[in-house]
Give the backbone structure.
Amino acid sequence: MKIFQWQFAHPRYWSSWLGLLLMRLSVYLPPRVQLWAGNHMAVLMRPFMDKRKQIAARNIELCFPELSADQRQDLLDNTMQTMGMMTIETALSWWASDKRLEARVRYEGLEHLEQALAKGKGV
């Protein structure tokens, strides 16, 4: 299997390549800047996410008919903001060093995992 296919060098993919580059670079930012960037990415992406935002708004409307229009809008805004943070976290999971990830992870209940493994149970 080829690692790179030249069809992806076409200009229509350039925005995707730019996005991947920015994601890659975000890994090297300090955690506070990553948090800020993730939380504000929705504002930057808004012009490019109109169709997705419409879909999310419709899904929220169908799933939560009991919410007022303002509550649904708040939920939509929070969802879009969460997507921005998810982008930063995805970049970290793909490209951050083990050392950098370990500094940001806290384990709770690790003893349950160890007990299950000791009993030969799959987890």
User: Anything to note?
Assistant: Residues 10-96 form one domain. The chain has a mean pLDDT of 91.
